[in-house]
Input
Amino acid sequence: MLTPNSCLNFAFRRILLALVAGMLLCALTPPAQAQHKRALLIGVHAYQHGPDSVFSDLNTESDVAAVRQVLMDRFGFAAGDIRVLTTGPETTRAAILAAMADTLVTPTQPGDIVYFHYSGHGSQVPDPADSSGVDETLVPSDWAKDGSKDIRDKEMRTLIEQIQAKKPGSLTLTFDSCHSGTITRGGRMLVRGVSFEKRYGHPAPIAPATATSGVKTRGGRMLVRGQSGAFGGLLPGQGASNTKSNLVVISACRDDQSAVETEDENHVPMGRLTFLLCAALRDAKPETTYQDLFERIDSLMRQNYSDTRQDPQIEGDSSQTLLGSAAVATPPYLRVENEPDGSLRLAAGSLQGMTKGSVFALYPAGTKDFTPKNAVAAATIASTRLLSSKLTVTYSGKADADLTAARAIETAHQYGDSRLKVAASLVGAPELLTSLRANASVAVVAAGELPDVTLTRTGADLVLTREDGGAVVGRFPPGADLIARVTAALKRETQWRFVRALNNEDTNSPVRLEMRIVTAEVTGNAEEGLTFVKNKPLSRGPVVVSPNDVVTVEVRNLGTVDAYVTVLDVQTDASVQQLWPTPNQTASESLIPHGQPDRWQTLMSDPTHPMLLQFGGTSGAETFKALATRERVDFRTLTTRGTLSPLELMLRSASSGTRASVAVTPSLWSTATVAFTVAP
Output
């Protein structure tokens, strides 16, 4: 549920994020196939006023003027193909909806490049049928207090689906708006958005979530959804025929922050996001990717605006170039950021496996070729915090200020006392034994010492076995890549142990969470899709589920603060998967509110559909581990299989640091664990 102080840009992105990311519309060079470029830019600044007015006028005309100019100057948009709406009559509900249909839906052809920008107020209006109890909205100039004139998320979804049905080459939506932030400029208060509570005088309602949903499976197949829009949001989810949305969403800030205004070089007031977005687009090169663009915007935000924290957000395939034609293979890296005192930090900490003494090579922002000759500095982790690490620059060809938003590549990892203890009886494999002894993450133990795992020869194969139960976690037939396969398995085992060791159930922590799994009552079948009916509590005692059971996961927040929650599936074969949130979900969907200790909340696959799980043909002991934090943390870095981004791969490879280090700052995070058995 969104809190009353949530920003529209993030709240509305919650609706958009049933979509998979696609391609940014902007093209820096002519594409091979002819594409028509069209844009609709809306800047609502003149709101009608009356005795119940809560929406002030805004400075948004300069926003759309700047976006229009950069689209024409840098990306080849024709002036006649950019429609701008700014006046009161142009930005009414009817005018905006008609313009979207006439400008973006009707004329779009396959391969076209389509852009939509909105600057203005956003809000929430009641909707008992929605799982959150409210709809997120764009507020037109002719708004009504009861919300009847607002443009609701469901209406936007319909329009975006209609555009997508035309199979455009790319579609971009940018929002410079917020419904919590205020800013004082020119002696008056400007509010780019109004919360539900301010608009209606009471907190937003909470409605139960019941809906048809698809089923995620482990070790099995994805069951067919019962309807094309099973995942909700603006577009069908992965189960629908349109599996690639070619959409990217850029918004002004996190859900708990304010989107504020600035002045351009001519002292004209405009939104910060729009100002920096246009600056970054003007500097873009043909090889610029979404990630490059986002990091440039974020870096400029941090460098130029220290008065108010505002973290831009981007959702989409960040490896795609701005042309949207291909992904650029960028090696794994971590981002470098500035501390308030001007020193540098790494955007990852002990909770993600960073360790004191690990060494990194630093490269300029935007670098994709990480050969040593391109490095501009070297740095060592001086200390770790929960979610970041302080860096000491040991060599630099540039001043520290030039390293803002640099990209860091780990060159030496300090494993400390977390090295995996391996007993190896490898008769006839001297090269493998030599490799193990040279591996910084492994400690080959002597006879009589207690190992974590044992590597033995069984016939022609090598077998990796855990000592705490005898589970076989790897079998390796002979082959030229034997050493590589064994090394990878040992890394996976180290990672698995790191995740299992994450534990903080401090009852005095303001972040406290409980989790349980329950069987779900559903109707339908795998071919036609399943309809969720309700949860059925499991019997007391050891939790046992059948491979054919459909289950849901429930959590409740017992702490005193709202908490971002991630649930990991820790399996006996040394695999770790992120169960929730799903890749298409936003931070607001993983934020579990406090103050409702008696309410078990079902994890949702999207804002309106419960996440249903089936275990396929697996059997054995399993564990779900929930990690709760006061700040949003991307724990996909701790997974050991599946498609990972370069950043996730980097963090995964470094997530075997000192185990004790994860216990720092216990008040800022907590865990909850559910062990269960899948029995045939």
Observations:
- The first helix runs from residue 8 to 16.
- Residues 1-33, 179-191, 207-244, 641-666 have pLDDT under 50 and may be disordered.
